[in-house]
Amino acid sequence: MLVADYEVAAYYFGIEGTHNLEGHCHLQEKHDVAETAENLNMPIDSIQTTIADIKQKLLKHRAARIMPGRDEKILTSWNALMIKGMALSAYLLDKTEYRQSAKRALDFISDHSLNGARLYAVCKDDKAHLNAYLDDYAFLIDAILHLNQAHWHSGDFNLAYKLGNTLIDYFEDTEHGGFYFTSHDHEQLVQRPRTLTDEAIPSGYSVATNALLRMGTLLGEERFIKAAERAIMQAKTAMESSPQHYATLLRAAMEYEHDFEYIVIRGSEEICRQWLRITADYYNPSRLCFAIPTTATDLPTALASKKADEDSNQGIAYLCRGQSCLPPFKNIQELTTHLQTSESKLLSK
């Protein structure tokens, strides 16, 4: 490095003076480009060029070192959490790239970590292994519901339904209600864990309960609703004794007690997009909205029965609580007015 370059680096990175890491200097931007140019009485353009050149030399030197190891396992449960986050952001912010990212992640899991109706927990180097745990199923079902809210895909929805049945078959405590963390065919453990409380991430037990309740309500699937009901009843005493530890499960209990609300929009692709934006403007975390275009096929019977208005090109929306639905909204203003009124009532409580 030239002496002139070192002078620039020394001031820009704050090299001269007290060392900040075990007798050495951990480089940091101590002064910005403008400050460096003023201190050294040099043009800003010259400083910018010199700093860029210095950084390239430093990067080349660092690249000669052995790179630190990196954990490259792809975990189904953690990816599901990210898929949900990206899907919800796509829905609320109308970000197509977020939805596409979430969809790619889901497709990867479907292609690599799914064997029939069973999931694997881990994938590395395109090889999946370890029977999935409750969190993997619960988080992925929840993620798929939110991804379908951002953009409808019948195949993904039907996958969530299939995973829901697997969850009940392999994880439910058939004697007392609720869900174990490990599947019935998991290796024998001294104690089979069942975690209800939320920690750094939501409880798989709670997410499973909420996801099954929502899907069961959407489809009129009594098996799902009853499994969720048993899980809530099993946890009732624990929630009453220390509710602050059971936020996710309390939401499921609230939706069970007051009936989960959902909106189904039918119409052309463009109508669906416009109406879905209105529901996002009046977002309620205890409500899911699905904009299903008239071209969609392979719909579950309960959703296929909510048909588009064949006599109008304006679209139609069905707003339901539990198994009871309001008269359908046949124009976007009717839906907007209802959502505005509902939001005002909610905020006034």
Describe this structure in words.
This protein has helices at residues 3-13, 33-40, 44-63, 76-93, 96-112, 134-150, 154-171, 204-219, 222-234, 236-241, 247-258, 269-281, 301-304, 332-348; strands at residues 74-75, 114-115, 118-124, 127-131, 261-267, 287-293, 316-321, 324-325. It folds into three domains: 3-63, no CATH class; 74-258, Alpha/alpha barrel (Glycosyltransferase), CATH 1.50.10; 261-348, Glutaredoxin. The longest helix has 20 residues, at 44-63. 54% of the residues lie in helices and 11% in strands. The chain is globular and about 80 Å long. Strands 1, 2, 3 and 4 form a four-stranded antiparallel beta sheet that branches. The protein is an alpha+beta fold and 349 residues long. The termini are far apart. Helix 1 crosses helix 2 and helix 6 packs antiparallel against helix 7.
Brief overview:
The protein is of the alpha+beta class and 349 residues long.
How many discrete structural domains? 3
CATH architecture of the largest domain: Alpha/alpha barrel
Q: Helicity, in percent? A: 40-55%
Beta strand %:
5-15%
Q: What is the straight-line distance between the termini?
A: 68 Å
* CATH domain class name of the largest domain: Mainly Alpha
- What is the total tally of β strands? 8
Judging from the principal axes of the Cα atoms, what is the shape? globular
> Structural class of the secondary structure composition?
alpha+beta
For this structure, the CATH topology of the largest domain is Glycosyltransferase
Average of pLDDT: 93
Largest beta-sheet characterization: 4 strands, antiparallel
- One letter per element, helices H and strands E, the order comes to HHHEHHEEEHHHHHHEHEHEEH
